[in-house]
DNA sequence: GTCTATACCCAGATAGAC
DNA sequence: GTCTATCTGGGTATAGAC
């Protein structure tokens, strides 16, 4: 007992390590989102998670490694969310779910969305391979589904790519351009405004491709 | 005559200065777009316009001054483009023109759009006042117009804000996320693809708010 | 007006005590 | 594992020759 280094409960050290890493990643996500990779400093990230700067280098070998981990974590969340675009559902259900989920992500993961946008805008130097593998695969399966819907006459004849880009951009805009939106709104969006915005995006897109968009034809309320 | 410093044609020096400044601004726009403010270096900008680094400081007192000038220039182009949203026209014409113009800007001013997006994503530290003055004024006049259209029954009842954000995001996406789009497309978009994307965006949005969107009801082909 | 050489500072990374 | 002190590279900005 006393000040000599004692025993730890098995696993507690590893758990603690994970916890600290998560804290650093969260802080890093916010700082990278607000300042960009070049503008962010290890000092600022360290301050944000109340750790000495040197500790960050103990857990992550370099600034770039840390950044890469942040981006990878976001990409994973993104891909999982993408599953809400169920390829088995009807167009109404699939699109409504997907748009709603993406709006929710924009609200709950604003910083993640910004880091992702930043990364892509700068030419995706870190995650370029993900774009060419995971994202491309995901996109191609959805394109095929949308094509089928068109062929069956369930929706108008649209190029699936432009439709997907439209969904991505409109939903992510609420995270990436949150500052502009909140400035024009003179404050953060209320719960009601989020619902209203989500509903509007759903309706315009669904009606735009020939569905009635009222959300009353087979979609269970979420 | 000879090597002693001679006369200049009136205005030629000033013209030259403007030319050099424009060259620096163009180079800076590209570098800032690709690297962000923090990631960009004066050296990289100097290289891009084939000038020694010190000359940049002769024409622009600091990196931040240069950046500010770049952002202001973009904002001006943006606002001018905004005039294509003519408040006097019918919804079909006004929206179609505005969307088309914004798509064109995304294609022709990719870097400018990226710098703007970057600036807003990082909380608009430089142009925050523009958001609260010029942009807010512009937005409010358009909101009023869209409200009127709704009231007259010309378009469905939508919150004008969400509609505007939708137009901004979908069109700017083609500039800001160009890298992602081109990766999925395995190359830059062709002329035909730009036309097709523009047409799709117009149709989905116009139909989405209750217009027929076929572009054949009063809009002269541009 | 133009450019080379340099001052100065700050940020990423590490050494080494605890 | 944690933290202080320090090294080092690179970036902004400027001094001063031409």
Automatic annotation (TrEMBL), chains A, B:
InterPro entries: Homeodomain-like_sf, HTH-type_TetR-like_transc_reg, HTH_TetR, Tet_transcr_reg_TetR-rel_C_sf, Tscrpt_reg_YcdC_C
Biological process terms in GO annotation: negative regulation of DNA-templated transcription
Molecular function (Gene Ontology), one example: DNA binding
Keyword Ligase attributed: no
Residues within the DNA-binding region(s): 41-60
Pfam families: TetR_C_3, TetR_N
Residue ranges occupied by any HTH tetR-type domain in the UniProt entry: 18-78
UniProt superkingdom: Bacteria
Keywords, alphabetical: DNA-binding
Protein name as annotated: TetR family transcriptional regulator
Protein's organism: Pararhodobacter oceanensis
Phylogenetic lineage: Bacteria, Pseudomonadati, Pseudomonadota, Alphaproteobacteria, Rhodobacterales
